[in-house]
Design brief:
By secondary structure, the chain is α/β, with parallel strands linked by helices. It is 61% helix and 9% strand.
């Protein structure tokens, strides 16, 4: 049997491997495919072991090893009946002969990571996972947890681990024990600018500059500006706007009051400020942090 695990959800891939191992009765071998040599393939796929009748062979990232990956497909039909093969390829090249051969012979499972539109999925998963860990997490508290962790499944899981050892879980406790995710830090920065507090914006930027990539941070800030603009032109509740644009409903709801205050004209100017900063970051050698600061300071002026 051949199983191909693809996709960039490393959490679910790890879990899937654990499930396969749990039900397998035999010898388990883990192989780093990037270091595998072609001469090792016959023994790996056809050889037997003196210590076990059945073998589970798990090979990760073989496609990174171009010389072996190219010819690997020709060996698949010769796989011994006593061997169960699991290939882990987060981003395989689907144009290669080996991948096409795997599509014919293997059970292909694509495990995609959560995106911003998967907030509800993350919240529902957190509630179910909490129950498996032995404690209750209401829908509201699950929402609070995902608000803090973001839709990164590893962060949600580790957050649940922290909560599972506590005597009780409340919204305040979640805020106390779960570190905010980068997106929440970015929202706090954007919200500070919307409050017109230029001095605090500069202080926050100085702190973020120590740990964050300016281009990634700018992209997240631009996303906040887009959400603000969407709210300013939409004639519907914030939760419906969040659903339409695939954003977290809590974050969008917090932007609602600013969208009303700014109106369409003010929101348009904020988007323009970020568009100018984006153009400047792409066409000049100016410090990107300076461009970010200039855009945010334009926001602080517009809101006053």
């Amino acid at each position: 049997m051949i199983t191909l695990l693809t996709g960039e959800n490393s959490f679910e891939i790890n879990r899937e491997i654990e499930r396969i191992i749990a039900v397998f009765d035999g010898q388990v071998e883990r192989i780093d495919g990037s270091e595998l040599e072609l001469r090792q393939i016959p023994d790996l796929l056809m050889g037997s072991s003196l210590f076990a009748e059945k073998r589970l062979v798990i090979i990760k990232n073989l496609s990174e090893n171009k010389s072996v990956w190219t010819d690997f497909g020709t060996w698949l039909e010769r796989l011994s009946d006593d061997i169960e093969l699991v290939l882990v390829e987060p981003k395989p090249d689907k144009r290669t002969k080996t991948f096409k051969e795997l599509q014919k012979l293997a059970e292909v499972r694509e495990l995609k990571p959560w995106g911003e539109r998967d907030v509800r999925i993350a919240e529902e998963w957190a509630s179910v996972q909490a129950k498996e860990m032995g404690f209750e997490l209401s829908a509201g508290l699950a929402g609070k947890l995902v608000e803090r962790t973001g839709v990164d499944q590893w962060r949600v899981f580790h957050g649940l681990e922290k909560l599972s050892v506590l005597d009780e879980v409340t919204s305040e406790i979640i805020e106390e024990v779960i570190d905010p995710n980068p997106i929440e830090n970015i929202f706090q920065l954007f919200e500070t600018a919307l409050k017109g507090d230029g001095a605090e914006v500069r202080t926050m930027l100085q702190t973020l500059e120590l740990t964050e990539d300016p281009y990634q941070l700018f992209g997240l800030l631009s996303g906040q500006a887009f959400q603000l603009a969407a709210l300013s032109v939409a004639d519907k509740p914030s939760n419906e706007v969040a659903k339409d644009i695939g954003a977290h409903p809590f974050v969008v709801s917090k932007l609602s009051s600013y969208a009303k205050k700014l109106g369409k004209s003010g929101a348009k100017k904020i988007v323009a400020a970020f568009a100018d900063a984006d153009a400047g970051m792409k066409t000049t050698a100016t410090d990107p942090w300076l461009r970010i600061e200039q855009a945010l300071f334009k926001v602080t002026v517009l809101i006053q």
